[in-house]
Q: What sequence folds into this?
C-alpha cells in the first residue's frame, strides 16, 4: 500500500507528524509519497529542502509540487491515521517504541558535537535527572499559546518541586529567573538544511544530560521530543478544564503512539491572547502530577508507559 500526503512550508510540526506516520507505516511494510507545497514567503517556517531531506531519512519520497490532489492525506489528519494503523495492529507499545527508535536513528546526538558541548556547559558536569523542558509558545490562534502568567505558573511549580526548568521553543517575553535556556541553540539551526536533524539531536542530547520530562501547550515542536521518547505533558483544549477525556480525537490519538500524557483546559478558563491569563489550578496540578511521577521512576519510559 502506498499513501499520498502533502505538507506546506508553513507547517513545521506537520513534517514531524508525517515522519512519524512514515515510521508507523514502515512497521507495517507500507510506503508514502509526500508533496511539499511552498507557502506564502511571509508564512514560511521551513524550506522545501529542509522538509525533503528530513522525510527522505524516513524512506519517504518527497518532492515539491504546486497543489495537492483529492486523494492526498491532508495536514492535521496524520495523527488520526497513525491511530487507525495502531488500532489495526493492536499494540500501542510496538508503535510507540517503533516511532521513537526511528526518530532516534535519524537524529543521532553525535551529529552535532558542538551542540553537545554547549548543552554540557549549560547543564553543568555530570548527569542529574532534574531538568524539565518547558515549551514557550507565543500567542496562537484559538488561544493555544503560552501567556506570560502561564509560563510563570509552570516554571514556578517546577522550581518548587526542586527541579530545573529548561526553556525551549519561542523566546519568552520576559526572562525567567533560575531557568536554563535552549532557545538560542535551537534558533541557530533554523536556516540549516538539516534543521530537523540538528534540533532532534539537540533534544536527544538534552535528555541524555538530565532532561526527563517536557511540558507545554500543544505544538508540533513539542511533539518532536515526544517522538524521540521524552515523556511529555501536552496541555491542550478541552470542553472542561482538567478532563482529558474531553479533548480532541487528534490529541488522544497522538498519546496512543507517543510518550505523551494529555491535560485539558477549557477556553472559558484560559486565553493565551491575554498575557495575564492564568491556567486553571487543576491543569497545573495534573501536569505536575505526571512530572513528579516520572521523576520517581528509574526505568526507561518504554518499560512503564501506559
A:
Amino acid at each position: 500500500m502506498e499513501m499520498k500526503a502533502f505538507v506546506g512550508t508553513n507547517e513545521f510540526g506537520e513534517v514531524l507528524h508525517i515522519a512519524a506516520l512514515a515510521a508507523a507505516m514502515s512497521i507495517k511494510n507500507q510506503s508514502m509519497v509526500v508533496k511539499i507545497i511552498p507557502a506564502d514567503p511571509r508564512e514560511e517556517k521551513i524550506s522545501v529542502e529542509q522538509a525533503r531531506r528530513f522525510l527522505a531519512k524516513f524512506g519517504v519520497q518527497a518532492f515539491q509540487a504546486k497543489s495537492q490532489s483529492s486523494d492526498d492525506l491532508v495536514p492535521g489528519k496524520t495523527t488520526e491515521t497513525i491511530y487507525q494503523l495502531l488500532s489495526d495492529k493492536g499494540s500501542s507499545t510496538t508503535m510507540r517504541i517503533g516511532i521513537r527508535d526511528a526518530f532516534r536513528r535519524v537524529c543521532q546526538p553525535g551529529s552535532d558535537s558542538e551542540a553537545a558541548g554547549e548543552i554540557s556547559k549549560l547543564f553543568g558536569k555530570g548527569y542529574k535527572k532534574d531538568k524539565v523542558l518547558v515549551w514557550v509558545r507565543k500567542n496562537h490562534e484559538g488561544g493555544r499559546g503560552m501567556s506570560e502568567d502561564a509560563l510563570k505558573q509552570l516554571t514556578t511549580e517546577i522550581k518548587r518541586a526542586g527541579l530545573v526548568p529548561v526553556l525551549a521553543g519561542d523566546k519568552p517575553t520576559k526572562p525567567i529567573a533560575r531557568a536554563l535556556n535552549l532557545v538560542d541553540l535551537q534558533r541557530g539551526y533554523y536556516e540549516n538544511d538539516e534543521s530537523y536533524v540538528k534540533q532532534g539531536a539537540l533534544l536527544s542530547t538534552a535528555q541524555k544530560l538530565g532532561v526527563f520530562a517536557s511540558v507545554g501547550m500543544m505544538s508540533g515542536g513539542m511533539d518532536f521530543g515526544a517522538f524521540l521518547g521524552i515523556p511529555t505533558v501536552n496541555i491542550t483544549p478541552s470542553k472542561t478544564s482538567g478532563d482529558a477525556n474531553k479533548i480532541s480525537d487528534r490529541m488522544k490519538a497522538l498519546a496512543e503512539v507517543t510518550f505523551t500524557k494529555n491535560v485539558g483546559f477549557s477556553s472559558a478558563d484560559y486565553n493565551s491572547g491575554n498575557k495575564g491569563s492564568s491556567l486553571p489550578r487543576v491543569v497545573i496540578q495534573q501536569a505536575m502530577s505526571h512530572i513528579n511521577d516520572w521523576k520517581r521512576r528509574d526505568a526507561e519510559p518504554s518499560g512503564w508507559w501506559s
Observations:
- Residues 12-27 form the longest helix (16 residues).
- The longest strand covers residues 2-8.
- The chain has two domains: 2-106, 110-298.
- Strands lie at 2-8, 31-37, 61-64, 131-136, 164-169, 180-181, 211-217, 232-237, 260-265.
